[in-house]
Specification:
Layout lengths: L14 E2 L2 E5 L5 H9 L12 H6 L4 E6 L4 E11 L2 E9 L8 H15 L5 E5 L2 H5 L4 E2 L7 H6 L13 E5 L5 E2 L12 E2 L10
Parallel strand pairs: 5-6, 9-10
Antiparallel strand pairs: 1-2, 2-3, 3-4, 4-5, 6-8, 7-8
Length: 199
């Protein structure tokens, strides 16, 4: 089943207890902004500006009721062909326990598979939920330098993080973000295929 479902196939959209899961559109930005930032005060999720949500709206998948009421969202951030990150998964309190969060996560994992990305990471305080989807805990956060460099340095809990790093698939041995000199000798530089003629 594809995670990208067109507007013309409403009757074939995946449903969970009356919920539909689909790729986000720009019109969803207000709802995504509100729900993500509702959990940013205590550090559960990183605060996102409205402009950032709009700019990255194509990363998001949303769940909505059959009548079109927004229930929750999640995003898949692509770092490169080696790694993607599941982020900002949140469901409204009234939709919890109905399977919408699991459906969003499955759609994001299918999207990573569609892109051929072998490793998907996330940081969470509820690892038990993600074990059911093939994630495992990695004790060494430094094994995910792309994630560390992109978000962790700006997190208010940088030196007091209480989240668990998890990975589905192999730990990546490449990185595309970070300082020009990577300290970990196990990491190898990503190779970009050359597609033109040499002169």
């Amino acid at each position: 089943m594809s995670s990208v479902i067109s507007e013309s196939t409403v009757s074939t959209r995946p449903r969970v207890n009356g919920a539909q899961v689909r790729k986000a559109r720009l019109q969803d930005a207000n709802n995504i902004f509100d729900i993500v930032n509702s959990l940013s005060g205590d550090g559960t999720l990183l605060r996102r500006s409205y402009a950032e949500v709009c700019e990255n709206v194509r990363d998001f998948t949303v769940a909505e009721s059959e009548s079109g009421v927004f229930l929750g969202c999640g995003a898949l951030h692509l770092y490169g062909p080696h790694l993607a990150e599941v982020r900002s998964i949140v469901v409204k309190p009234e939709a919890k326990g109905q399977g919408a969060g699991g459906r969003i996560l499955r759609a994001l994992l299918e999207e990573a598979d569609d892109h051929g990305v072998p490793s998907v990471c996330l940081f969470t305080r509820i690892p038990d939920f993600f074990f059911h989807f093939g994630f495992r805990i990695t004790m060494d956060r430094a094994a995910l330098p792309d994630k560390i460099y992109k978000d962790c340095q700006n997190c208010p809990r940088l030196h007091a993080c209480d989240e668990v790093a998890m990975v589905r698939g192999p730990i990546p041995r490449v990185a595309v973000l970070g300082p020009s000199r990577v300290q970990d000798s196990d990491l190898v530089p990503i190779q970009i295929p050359f597609s033109g003629e040499r002169h």
